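#struct-help
A.M.: can someone run this one for me? Single chain, 320 residues.
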Amino acid sequence: MAENIPLSIVLALITAFSAGLGFFLQKKGQNEIQAEGLSVIKYLLTAVKNRKWLAGFALTVVHIPLYVYALNIGLITITQPLANTSIAFIVLLGMKYLGEKLGKAETVSLILLVAGIFVIAFTPPLPPEDIVRPSTPQIIGGLGVLAIVMVIAYAVCVLLLAAKKRAIGLAFISGLSMGMASILITTLSRMLWNAGLGDFLDFGLDLRIALGIFRNDLVPESMVLYGAALFLLLYFLTVILALRSGKLTLVIPVEMGTSFILPVFVGFFLFLEPALPSLIAGIAACLVGALVLSKVQADMEVKLAAKPGTVAAKPPSSST
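D.P.: on it. Structure tokens below:
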């Protein structure tokens, strides 16, 4: 793991912009689709025929390799908060498209978010000799405890779905899944570093890990890789379905907040990344600013759906 914090920061911000633009295009495309009454498969088949939705989905997929590399060369407590600043790009795009102005509270939130980005980016890193790196057995042990917590969390989400709280249940699942994907990607990076095997840029090593389960070679690493891929797929599926529900005032803050907080918490306590006061302050500023702006985004989405030429699907009354 060739650590390069400045480059990881740049890549995280690029992924934030890509994800923000992708989300915005997906919502524009979705508002042109008559999705009410369609099954999941028929909805997806209809959505991919819409150029805006397809372009937005492609952007959200394409940014994943950059995001993975940013996690590989950086710290999850830095990369994940910056990657979640996509909300700022979404709001700015919405302002341009809808010709609106931000109020005082929203302006302060945007300033807070940008200030948090700068604080995180310019926090001096600890010298390499002062950084504690957990061993692979320690990481695996921590993941075991995390797995128990996640089973309980997903069980609660299933109960929410069973209780017909569809929007919030799917939003929690998508946020948890994205958070777990980032945690497992970071785990794999640390495992490779501890074993002195290299990093994700080695295609031969990547292939070896991908086939590890079948060859009885690097099996733990292979299992972590497939786990990360599974959670990414679950994230993409559930976030699409959550956004389809139309309850954006719930979906956006819940999904973003969950995928923001979980990896940061794990980064400090499992990967033993330095909890510097300025870093924590920057993370807190980003979180508060993003949560307030998520309400702005939700309001913009409602107005976007109401624009002439769009089809606003009626949200189910039992989704909240």
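A.M.: thanks! The mean pLDDT is 78.
D.P.: also worth noting: The first helix runs from residue 5 to 30.
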